[in-house]
Design a protein that fits this description.
About 75% of the residues lie in helices and about 5% in strands. The longest helix has about 40 residues. It has a two-stranded antiparallel ribbon. It has one domain: ABC transporter involved in vitamin B12 uptake, BtuC. Helix 3 crosses helix 4 and helix 7 packs across helix 9. The radius of gyration is 21 Å and the shape is globular. It has about 350 residues and is mostly helical.
């Protein structure tokens, strides 16, 4: 009888999973075919314009979402302070630019040297931001690593408020401007203006995502990260330094967020102390949509969230964009908690 009951339970779970999968993929597909696709034929230029905006927005979100998914994948912590690390990276980048004489509104005519200046400042900012995040992990998260999951989660929320408070004290409540060092101008495709800044931002994000993927898959430290995510105790028995590996994860996640903060400033020119709060929540939704703990899933989820937000702003009502994105978060958690590409975190 127990065997029959178990088999019936597995059958019900299987049917429920398939139905949930059909709903998960079917509802967005129908919405796209009915609400979005016809717009392509009515006004291709405007459709392409929105597409460019969505991909650009998704590129920035991807650099933040990668930090969420890496930290969750290795220690199963939702680091809600990560969005503020993104803002902090932007603040530090603006500070370093100002120290070398590059301020908003000042044309230095650096020419070809601009690329090397941007790469250099970005590298320094990424290193500083990564070091700050390693310090946060050491002070706020590591002592709670073996405590119930609620404890580090609450600590992460607290760290978010601390970072926002410090940035408020540092820069105040007003928006700060970022220097505009991306190439100006645009080209036209089907009556859509494609900004060169969008191309640079998308290319930079793509390069960083590819480099991260290669690092995780090909390097010794990347293999240690994957082993730690799979089974922390077994990895430690095999000689992997768990603390060093987790610190490296926090460093890389914050470095990518810093790159995203600088690119965000280049693209939109200004941000303030709480910019990372809502942006971080969007990036978290992207990580869940793609599959928390999955690098490629985070990038894919960020791209989709960027497109959804852009199409709603363009064809719907922009004030509903936040509601729609967080509704997607609930939708994913209800019908497919593993996301599009599946979690890469083993069940404990």
């Amino acid at each position: 009888m127990a065997t029959v009951a178990g088999a019936l339970k597995q059958t019900r779970l299987g049917i429920s999973g398939r139905v949930g999968g059909w709903i998960f993929y079917g509802v967005p597909l129908v919405a796209f075919l009915v609400l979005i696709l016809p717009r392509l034929f009515l006004n291709p230029g405007f459709f392409l314009q929105i597409l460019v905006f969505g991909v650009t927005d998704g590129a920035v979100l991807a650099l933040i979402a990668l930090g969420y998914t890496m930290v969750y994948g290795i220690i199963e912590l939702i680091n809600f302070a990560h969005g503020d690390i993104f803002t902090l990276g932007g603040f530090i980048g603006v500070l370093i630019f100002s120290l070398i004489g590059i301020v908003p509104g000042k044309d230095l005519n650096l020419g070809f040297l601009t690329l090397f200046v941007v790469i250099g400042v970005m590298a320094v900012t990424m290193a500083i931001n990564g070091g700050i995040n390693v310090l946060i992990e050491r002070v706020a998260y590591r002592p709670l690593r073996h405590q119930p999951r609620l404890a580090p989660l609450i600590t992460a929320v607290g760290m978010s408020f601390i970072l926002e408070g410090l940035m408020f004290i540092w820069k105040g409540p007003n928006f700060i401007q970022s220097p505009d060092l991306l190439p100006g101008g645009h080209f036209t495709v089907l009556a859509a203006n494609v900004d060169y800044r969008s191309i640079v931002l998308i290319a930079a994000a793509l390069v960083l995502v590819v480099l991260l993927t290669l690092f995780i898959e090909r390097t010794k430290l990347g293999k240690a990260m994957r082993a730690t995510a799979q089974d922390r105790d077994a990895a430690q028995l095999m000689g992997i330094d768990i603390n060093r590996t987790i610190s490296a994860t926090f460093f890389i996640g914050a470095a990518l967020a810093a790159a995203g903060g600088i690119l965000y400033g280049f693209y939109l020119h200004n941000f303030r102390f709480d910019t990372g709060f809502i942006t971080g929540l969007f990036a978290f939704t992207a990580a869940v949509l793609g599959g928390i703990g999955n690098i490629r899933g985070a990038a894919l989820g960020a791209l989709l969230i960027g497109l959804i937000r852009a199409f709603n702003d363009g064809y719907g009502r922009s004030e509903w964009s936040d509601v729609l994105i967080f509704a997607i978060l609930v939708y994913v958690l209800v019908f497919r908690p593993t996301g599009l590409l599946g979690m890469q975190v083993p069940e404990k």
